[in-house]
Structure formats: structure tokens, C-alpha cells
TrEMBL record:
Molecular function GO labels: DNA-binding transcription factor activity; transcription cis-regulatory region binding
Classification via Pfam families: TetR_N
Organism name: Glutamicibacter uratoxydans (Arthrobacter uratoxydans)
DNA-binding feature ranges: 36-55
Protein name per the record: TetR family transcriptional regulator
Length: 200
């Protein structure tokens, strides 16, 4: 891939993330129904035409923000070199889902509010489910890269167990009244221990 194409993709990803942050801030402040695409475009400092170049709906604009965590955890897993695959996944869960990311504060509160919104809006719930499905597929491919002898079926099972463990932990966390009251990493690891128990 050329350096120019890499730069273009990085700029595209950065723009998408800025739009997602603008949308999340507006949704949290004034509600989903009261927020228009025009509001999001103004907040992000882009034209309406540019918004629609990236996203078909206001709900879809949240996807890049929801994907950030998945990308971070996959990167951590790729760099985790010691132990069995089960142990490496568990370590990556503990490292990525560090408690500081889920405490009250700008980033923790924003993500808490964003995930809480999905309970009242089917559009955001659909985006959340698609992000998790995509993350699961990417993770299965990653696992086969780091473990070349792993069968496709086993890689998919590990990916499903890990992704579901994180999703359920985050959804439980979002139902708490305040960020910081639930140990997300511990819950995700407990989920993974149960869901991955039968995978060899």
C-alpha cells in the first residue's frame, strides 16, 4: 500500500472519529431525537454533504467511536506473546479494560452515556451489534495470524467467546447508574472463563 493511500485512509479515519465524537456529545447533551444531522455537521465543522459522504444516518455516525475499544483490544492481543491463547486473551482483556477507562470523567462518562443510549434507540442498538459482529470477524482472522495452526472453526469460537464477553460486560456497565461502580475487566474475564471453558 502506498504512503499516499495510507495518509488518505488515516485522514478519513480521523474525520470519521471527529464526526462520531461530535454526534456522541450532542446526543448526550440534547437527546437523539432533538439532534439533527445538520447539528452534528456544525459541531464537527464540516458540511452536510461531507457528513453524508461518510455516514447515511446520524446513528451510524457513532460507529467509529464504538470501534475504538475493539481496535485497541485487538492490538493489545496481537502484541501479547506469552502463555497459551486462552491466557493471552485473558491478559488482553485485563489490560485493555483497565478500570481507569470506566471511571467517572470525560471519557468514561461519555462512553457510559453513549452505551446507555442504545437501550432507548433501535438505530444505535443496531450500530452497536454491527460493530460487535465486525469485531468478532476481525478477531477471528487475527487469531489465525498469531496462531497459524488454529483451525478456522476454533478461531471463530475463540473470537465469539471473547467478543461476547466484552459486549456483555460493557452492556452491564452501561446499565449502572454511575461509571466506576462496576469492574468491567473482572466481569469480562469472568464471562470469558465461562464462555471459553469448552474450547480447546
Amino acid at each position: 500500500m502506498s504512503e499516499r493511500k495510507n495518509l488518505t485512509q488515516r485522514r478519513k479515519a480521523a474525520t470519521e472519529l471527529e464526526i462520531a465524537k461530535a454526534a456522541a456529545a450532542l446526543f448526550a447533551r440534547q437527546g437523539i431525537e432533538s439532534t439533527t444531522v445538520e447539528n452534528i455537521a456544525d459541531q464537527a465543522g464540516i458540511s452536510l454533504r461531507t457528513f453524508y459522504r461518510y455516514f447515511p444516518t446520524k446513528e451510524e455516525s457513532l460507529a467509529p467511536l464504538l470501534q475504538v475499544g475493539a481496535e485497541q483490544w485487538q492490538k493489545t492481543l496481537r502484541n501479547e506473546a506469552s502463555g497459551s491463547l486462552r491466557e493471552r486473551i485473558d491478559t488482553a482483556l485485563a489490560t485493555t479494560l483497565d478500570a481507569s477507562a470506566f471511571e467517572a470523567g470525560d471519557s468514561g462518562t461519555a462512553m457510559h452515556e453513549l452505551l446507555a443510549l442504545r437501550q432507548a434507540n433501535q438505530g444505535i442498538e443496531d450500530v452497536w451489534q454491527r460493530v460487535n459482529t465486525r469485531s468478532e470477524h476481525v478477531l477471528a482472522q487475527l487469531l489465525q495470524e498469531v496462531e497459524p495452526d488454529l483451525s478456522q472453526r476454533t478461531a471463530k469460537l475463540w473470537a465469539a467467546a471473547a467478543t461476547c464477553s466484552i459486549r456483555l460486560a460493557l452492556e452491564d456497565w452501561a446499565e449502572e447508574e454511575h461509571p466506576g461502580t462496576l469492574d468491567v475487566a473482572a466481569l469480562a474475564r469472568e464471562n470469558f472463563a465461562w464462555l471459553g471453558a469448552g474450547i480447546n
